[in-house]
Structures are given as structure tokens and as C-alpha cells.
Amino acid sequence: MNADLPLATLHLLRPQWLWALLALPLLFGLWRVRRRRSSVWRENVDAHLLAHLLVERGGARVRWGWSIAVLGYVLAVLALAGPSWRQTPQPLWQSRTPLVVAVDLSSAALAADLPPSRLAQARAKLSTLLRERQGGQVALVAFADDAFTVAPLTEDTGNVALFLDALSPEVMPIDGQRVDRAIAWSAQLLKQSGFDRGRILVMSDHADDAARDAASTAARQGYRVDVLGLGSDAGAPFRRGDGTFASARLDGGSLRGLASAGGGRYIAIAADGADLRALGVLDPADADDATRVDATRGAAWQDEGYWLLPPLMLLALLAFRRRAALAVLAVCVLWTPAKAADVWRRADQIEHAHLEDGNAAYRRGDFATAAQDYQRADSADAHYNRGNALAKAGQYPQAIAAYDDALKRKPGMPDALANKRAVEAAMKRKPPSGGGSGNQSSPQQDKQSDSGKGPQDQQQQQQKQQQQQQSQSDPQSGQSNDSKSEASPADSQAQRQADAAQRERMQRALQQQRDASAKPAQQSEPANETPQQREQRLANEAWLRRVPDDPGGLLREKFRIEHERRRSAGEGTE
To answer: Which one of 3.30.470.20, 3.40.50.620, 1.10.10.10, 3.40.50.410 gives the CATH number of domain 99-292?
Structure first.
């Protein structure tokens, strides 16, 4: 803060807050009235005797208290007013004029007076425009007898370029050359996007009176119409969609009149980029852009009101009663940062923190601490993870209770049901000692809830998905053979069936891998891909190969549906 700054540099960002200072006399008057009414002596003793009967107590203290309150009020009002005495540079957004390109896709686009064809030259010119344009949103409109949106206004010119190869008269639902509809539709796109200024570039070979009227209307709306002529003065024949032949040539006079009516420029297409540079569509900032912003005005006043907050807070301490300031300081010291952080966090954020603490303890092998951390989060995933930690510690009854809590909050939870059944089977085989030593193997103990960010990483989960069924049937597969010999005959039969099923699945997986390796690899396969994932990927690839390669099919169907909708709605030519 520089004290040498002249008062002339002081600037208030919110000066309307100064009106709050007018409330000071009113508040002082109300306080005086209330103080007089609060005295019982004043109601029963004459006023000229009060000076001799009453002894004023705390007069100086009251005056100091009132002065501090007034000073704090003034500081608060000044801080709210936003005092500022310096400016800082601010980055300003450079407005770029949006551009809508309307390209002629009538049958005349197949004329060969621009070798190899007008259509090929138009595609190449559009590609150059999209590649070399320096900023600004671009849209692409195709028109014949009616106009349709190929790509809406976007700053991603690469997204617009994806449709260039699909541009063809075949995608248009009906043939014709309605330039007026193309201009009206382009102006509507700009208006719907919220632009009061913009440019329309028409690529065609001639224009009529309706097109000139549409250009004049667009110019009055703030949208400039430029024209890029397609074709040559000599012209060339072309074949219409119905099989008949016609001739098309470049009518420069009508196109020049169209550009004049739209307040823009006209130029015939050229082999290089001189035509686009002459039209000024490559660098919209260099063109006659009414929406440009002067970058030298990028400065803003800096709000310095926060400098008044420290003295205001010190004055606020004096407003407490005796020893209250010491109590406030004690609360601030005893209030730990962790408790303060919990106040500003949402319930889901606090629950996520408890899950993360439990996951960290689980990874360390401290299953008792992990169970306690999971207990602090009351959700299905937290109780499921708590059951896994308790099962890992050998506390099977508590683990079953945790799975039950998870099922209460999320009925039918598959993992909780599977683990609960496996723990119950493990309790029947060998009752747990309850020591919590952690040397027993719990069912699906490494598979934690995804939402809880389980202790094991995703790769380990994928590797153990194939062992899930076996672990459900044999939850203590990591123990010695002596413990298995204590199982009942029914359990032994179930164990043999589970082992047989597991061996069969492994054989099928190995056979699929051998078949895949015997075939010539056409592309690299993802690493650590399970047989189920590979089967799904191959099915998707086979389905994609059945889809016909028709780049223009999307546009053709889109334009057909839009044309039928407009015709059924009875929309006019505008």
C-alpha cells in the first residue's frame, strides 16, 4: 500500500454502498431514545432534579464503545464499496467474426469447366479455408433446392473438414439452385447462435432476384454476404439427376450484384489462396469486423477493500465481553485443522475420505484399523469393504454382520452375497479362532468395491475374476491339506465339482488362446486381455465389418428427414 498516491487515483468499484453511511445518524438517534426510555428514574423524577440525583457510571466507557462501533461500521462500509487505487492488465477475449459457408451441391456442381469438376474444386477450396483460417467459428451449409446444415457453428474446423468427402449432389433430397434459401438459412444459424454480426460465404455460379433480396435482408440483420464464384465464363454441360443434360456457366454479373446487395465482396475461384485472402475470410481479425476488441484497453481496477478487513477484525474483538477474546482464541487453537476441514466438506466427501483411510490401512495389512475406518462411512460399499477386512482378520461372525449391513443398504449386492455365502461355508468347515492374526484367507478378500477404490489395483482384480467361483466353494484354499480333510462328505463332493468346473474353464481358455495364436495376427491385441474380453472384442469387430462404408449416407438420411419434416410442416420458401 503506497501512502504517497494522490487522492485522485482513488476509485470505488461499488460506490452505492456509501449510502449505508446515512444510517449512522438514525442509529444514533434510536440508541438515545432507547437509553432514555430504559431509565426508571427518568419516568418518575423531574428532569431538572436528575442531574443532582443520578451519578453517571461508565460515561467514558460508553463513549469509547460508541466510537469503536462507529469506526467499525465505517470501515465495513468502505470495504464493501471496493476502494481501488491501481489497475492491473486483464486478458481480453478477441472476438472473431463467425463464418457460415454455403456451398452449391446442385447437379451443376458436376460440371467439368473447373477440372476435374466444380465439386472437386469446391472441396479443395473448403479444405484450404478450414486449414488456414485463423480463429473464429465456422459452419457449413449445403444447398440445392433447399438448404441444410452440414456442420453447425464451431471453432473445431477439423470437425467440419470430416464432412468434405461426403459432399455430393447425391446427398441432397431434391435438385435445384435456391441461393436465397441458402442465405436465409445461414443467417438463421448465426442468429440462433446469438451473433448479431457475422459473415456468409456463398459458393455458386449465378444468383437471381430472390437471392439478392435475401442478401439485402441478411445485411440489414448485420450479416455480410460474400460470394465465391464457381465455374468459368465458357461453362460446361452436366447431367441432372433425372438423366437430362443442361449447361452451366459462371454469371459473374449476377454474383457481383448479390455481393453488393449483401454488403460484401465477389471474386471468382482461383487455383491458389488469393481468392480467400481477397475476401478476408482467412484472418477474421484483419477484416472489417465490427465486433473486434481493442487489446490496449485490457486493464481493470483491482479491489483493495481486503486491506480494511484486519483492522475491522481487531475492532470486532473489543465487542466481546470480558475474557471472551481469550475464549475465542482458545477455540481457534483447540479446533484442529481436520475438524475445520470436515465443516467445509460435503457428506460424500467425508465418506470418501474414510474409505481412502480404510483402503490405506488394508494395503498395510492393518485389517482392524481398516475395519474401523470403513465403519465410519455408512454406505453399502463401506460395509462391504469392512466385511472383507474382518474376514481377512478371521473375524467371520463380524464379517457376516457387515455383509448384512451392506445388503440392507443395497439389496441384492452380488459381491456381498457371494462373500457372505463363502464366509458361512468357511465357518462350517473350521470355526475361526477369532485371533485376528490375518493368516487365514477370506473369500474374495482382494476384491474391494470400485467406488471405494479398493486396496488391490485393477489388474489384480481382473486376474482374480477367474478364481472367484473356486474361492466361493473353497474359501480357505490357502490353508493346509489337514484343514481340508476335516470337511464333511457333502463339502468334499462340492469341492470336487468346483475343481472339475474350474479345470474345464481353464481348458476352454487355453484352447481359445491356442486357436487365436494359430491364426495370423492382423492387429496387436491388448495386453492382459481375458478370454471373455477378447471374445467380446472380436464380436464387435465382426459387427463393424458388416456396416457398409458409405460416408455420405449419414448426410443423405439427415437431409431427407429434414426435407420431409419441412414439407409436412408446410414451411415456406423463407
So the answer is: 3.40.50.410
